[in-house]
Amino acid sequence: MKILVAEDDHYTRQGLLDLLTHDGYEAIGARDGAEAWHRYQTESPHLVCLDVMMPELSGYDVCKKIRATDRRTPILFISAKSEEIDTVLGLELGADDFIVKPFGVKAVLARIRAVTRRCLAQEDTADTQAFTMGDLRIVPAELRAYRDQEACDLSLREISILTLLYQKRGAAVSRDTLFEVCWGAHYLPNSRSLDQQISQLRKRIERDPSAPEIVKTVHGVGYRYDNVPS
Asked: What crossing angle do the helices spanning 84-92 and 59-69 adopt, rounded to 10°?
């Protein structure tokens, strides 16, 4: 899923790009409103995050241009403008949400994941169909897994990892394949980032992370999901 982040402050923009990339999104940046409008036209993002006060074109202007031809792509404003009238104006222009700076990482991810769920719910493909791994039911369209009627929120990348292991169930999936499918061909492989991701995933989905039954390690190769617990 591709997200366009338009923000004129370099550190805020890069921080958002890093946050979204870590969560499994394909994040692209724009330094001002004119570049945001250009990248929207050329990249066709699934979601647009706009700062309000930007050079060339304001976030409001970019939103107007997008909504003139596109009523479906979700738009989130992220701005230091915190007056109620600013929020109302943004929503009246067609934005789906308005996040006020300074913001917390968890709050931003929660808002973006909520929009992602709405987007996925509109799709009816093999990638959004629920499946079962052991006693865990994974629902990609909800970015959640269920066990004993308890829900566990998952990131887009975690869903991608589980989907790949399920599709290749019974076979070892190499680290290179995991990176290519779940991170993208442009990503430079880093064993530490994969191991950390798997470790965090196990803490969420395994009954006993120290003795995993769903995401098993295949030493020297990668990871594997067996169709039935050992």
From this structure: 20
The dihedral through the CA atoms of 119, 120, 124, 125 has a sign that is positive
Which pLDDT band holds residue 229 (cuts at 50, 70, 90)? Answer: very low
Give CA angle at 156 (75, 95), nearest 5°.
10
Residue 190: pLDDT band by 50, 70, 90 thresholds?
A: low
**Domains of the chain by range and CATH?**
2-121 (3.40.50.2300), 126-224 (1.10.10.10)
Question: Omega of the bond prior to 212 within 30 degrees of 0, cis?
Answer: no
Whole-number Å distance between alpha carbons of 148 and 36: 44
| CA distance readout (Å), 204 to 161, 163, 166, 181, 209 | 13, 16, 17, 21, 8
Sign of the CA dihedral running 127, 220, 187, 108: positive
Angstrom distance (rounded) from CA 145 to CA 159: 9
pTM summary value: 0.81
Task: Give kind and range of the element (H or E) at residue 110.
Answer: helix 105-121
Q: How many residues are there in the chain?
A: 230
Other Cβ atoms within 10 Å of 197 Cβ, number? 19
Say if residues 172 and 222 touch (Cβ distance below 8 Å). yes
